[in-house]
Specification:
The chain is mostly helical and about 240 residues long. Helices cover about 55% and strands about 10% of the residues. The C terminus is likely disordered. This is DUF2786 domain-containing protein.
Length: about 240
């Protein structure tokens, strides 16, 4: 199992290759995909370590603040990162805005959620200041409506990529003699998180689905497919809050 620094070094090299202007778009996508696979494999390794050493990991939670504008859409991005990484998300709302999201799961998975969200939100908001609806599908479409659906598409692509990376990492991990398979360990951890979440927050209702109008979904989805699933270069971390 590679240590954290070795993993990040490998991820940096892959992302550097992906950003090389000399490589083709297909080659860049291949490098980005490989980087995502390494991050997912690291999560599997941490899960297996926790399964063999009971004190190596724990279920806890972290509150991540969400700012306007587009707070509900930013919260959607965070939720779409959390779920593939076997975490649950609880939105804190004030009127029509989301002020924060409590993410609930194993500590090692929460760390990956925080780092991925920080990186991907930066990538998304940087692009969001530049995107415009070139061909307006709806008469009188506002820039805000376009950007909301753009973020929705970006989040959807991120969810699909993370889910595929996590599933592939668990399925292809080679089990060693005397140890359970990664898929079984992940299933158990998913069940444990769900049970702990239901015990603490099971009486809360799910929010109804949103109805968005705007033509930015496909543009945002394409941007999400190209986004770097990169957790390197981010040193600040929030301290997870213990479950009480």
């Amino acid at each position: 199992m590679p240590d954290h620094d070795t993993l990040l070094a490998r991820v940096r090299k892959l992302l550097a290759k992906a950003e090389d202007p000399a490589v083709t778009e297909a080659e860049a996508e291949s490098y980005n995909t490989k980087a995502a696979e390494l991050i997912a494999r690291y999560g599997i390794d941490q899960a297996l370590l926790a399964a063999s050493v009971a004190t190596a990991d724990e279920i806890t939670q972290v509150l991540i603040p969400i700012d306007n504008p587009y707070s509900r859409d930013k919260a959607g991005l965070l939720t779409n990162i959390a779920h593939p990484l076997r975490c649950r998300a609880l939105l804190h709302r004030l009127g029509q805005s989301v002020t924060g999201v409590t993410v609930f799961g194993f500590r090692s998975d929460l760390e990956r959620v925080e780092l991925l969200y920080t990186s991907l939100l930066l990538q998304a908001t940087t692009q969001l200041t530049r995107v415009r609806p070139e061909n307006r599908v709806f008469a009188g479409e506002s820039l805000a409506a376009y950007r909301r659906t753009w973020l929705h598409g970006f989040s959807g692509a991120v969810y699909e990529r993370l889910r595929n990376s996590e599933d592939t990492a668990a399925r292809t991990h080679t089990a060693t003699a005397g140890h359970r398979s990664a898929e079984l360990v992940i299933q158990d951890r998913t069940t444990m998180v769900k049970q702990a979440y239901d015990e603490r927050y099971g009486d809360l209702r799910s929010a109804p689905p949103r109805r968005l109008s705007g033509s930015g979904y496909l543009d945002g989805h394409s941007a999400g497919e190209r986004a770097n699933l990169n957790t390197t270069g981010i040193t600040g971390r929030r301290r997870a809050l213990p479950v009480r």
